[in-house]
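User: Sequence recovery, please. Input:
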């Protein structure tokens, strides 16, 4: 029995030694750590020039801006635009003289103190910067005598360039005050898809939306149909297309808006209407 026990034990030991060790279980592959996701890139907003290009409109020329000159002309434009009701008589007489290139006179004998103060100050500013080549005011007669420079850029500024500049600067200041990302393009000369040449007074990009302003200091009747057609080329709605008419009566402006599919405003209320459009409260 004893010998049989040892034989059995030996057999069991042999079997244990011959049985291969159990292979370690393969570990399932560990998933790669997720790559840190960066913040999504901000969508690039098209510039005004890129927006025009997308419409098939080529920018042929942009105004060359000289910083010091721009500051002076903007200051003059803001003075005239902000005080236009008291400067209207002076401005109309000054503008009439540009076609004759002669000296003009303006009697202020029946003018208010505000009209006299603003008129004489504005003429003094124009003379300081040589936009007037001569200027005299006789206080005992309350009469202005002055002559405008015949230089081309002076004539352009006084006939209407100042209003274009006024609108652009007031819009720019308003958008800055609201911290709204924006671009203001002034006086772009463009070629339309049909080849026609055109100057766009003021284009304003706010975020991804674009607004267009045309300005007129005088006869607009011959141009308003052209502006209504250009609005379609630009792909803008009536509320995105502004026609700023100097001294225009609000009631008549409203009627013109309805007739021609543009937002017709004047120099005093265009900013208020623009703000309403931006905020989505415009009718």
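Assistant: Recovered sequence (283 residues):
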């Amino acid at each position: 029995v004893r010998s049989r026990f040892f034989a059995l034990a030996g057999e069991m030991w042999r079997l244990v030694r011959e049985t291969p060790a159990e292979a370690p279980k393969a570990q399932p592959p560990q998933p790669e750590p997720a790559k840190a996701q960066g913040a999504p890139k901000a969508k690039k907003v098209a510039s005004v020039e890129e927006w025009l290009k997308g419409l098939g409109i080529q920018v042929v020329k942009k105004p060359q801006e000289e910083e010091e000159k721009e500051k002076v002309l903007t200051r003059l434009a803001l003075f005239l635009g902000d005080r236009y009701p008291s400067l209207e008589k002076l401005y109309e007489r000054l503008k009439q003289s540009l076609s004759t290139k002669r000296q003009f006179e303006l009697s202020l004998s029946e003018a208010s103190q505000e009209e006299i103060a603003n008129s004489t100050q504005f003429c003094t500013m124009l003379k300081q910067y040589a936009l007037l080549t001569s200027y005299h005011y006789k206080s005992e007669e309350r009469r202005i005598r002055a002559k405008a420079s015949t230089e081309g850029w002076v004539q352009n500024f006084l006939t209407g360039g100042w209003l274009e500049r006024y609108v652009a600067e007031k819009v720019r200041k308003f958008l800055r005050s609201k911290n709204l990302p924006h671009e203001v393009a002034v006086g772009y000369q463009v070629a339309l898809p049909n080849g026609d040449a055109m100057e766009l007074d003021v284009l304003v990009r706010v975020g991804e939306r674009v607004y267009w302003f045309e300005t007129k200091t005088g006869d607009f009747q011959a141009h308003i149909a052209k502006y209504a057609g250009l609005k379609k080329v630009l792909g803008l709605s009536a509320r995105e297309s502004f026609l700023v008419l100097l001294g225009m009566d609000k009631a008549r402006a409203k009627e013109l808006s309805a007739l021609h599919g543009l937002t017709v405003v004047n120099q005093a209320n265009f900013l208020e209407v623009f703000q309403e459009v931006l905020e989505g409260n415009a009718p």
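The chain has a mean pLDDT of 89.
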